[in-house]
Each structure stands twice: as C-alpha cells, then as structure tokens.
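Throughout this chapter, every protein is written as a compact record of paired, labelled lines. The reader may check this reading against the record printed directly beneath this paragraph:
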Amino acid sequence: MMSETLVDLDGIFNLALKETQELLELGYDLRDNSCITSLEWYANKYPEIAPRCNDALRELIEKQAVMYPELTNAVYDIDLDSF
C-alpha cells in the first residue's frame, strides 16, 4: 500500500513569502544572484506554485526599490571609464 503525502502548497507559499519579506526587511538585495530566496527555492521545488512565487518576488523587488533606492542606484552607478 502506497502512502500519499498531501503537500500544503498554500502554506508553503505563505511561509516562503514571509521568509522572503524578512530578508527584504533585513536589507538583503533580493536581486542578488547569490541570494536564493525561499520564494525562488520553493518555486523550483513545486512548479504548481511557481507563478505565484515569481509574481510575489517581483512585487517584493519593486517594493525594495522604493524602500532602498540606494541599492537600485548602486547597480546602475558604474564608472565604465575605470575598465
């Protein structure tokens, strides 16, 4: 007899959203490729919630751009003459 495990995708999404919001509040740059957020990790693990996770992450990145404009400016403030 095979045991089926039901996965609470709404609960997983809500937890991932909360954890990613905490990273934002701590000042982590959510656009940094070396920072894998819970939303990204769970989107990869559970494709069923990937669109929700991606939309939520996009909204948090937009929120971060307003909360921490210096992060956005730092990305685009590169002196190309120094290369």
Q: What stands out?
A: The longest helix spans residues 50-67. Residues 50-76 form one domain.
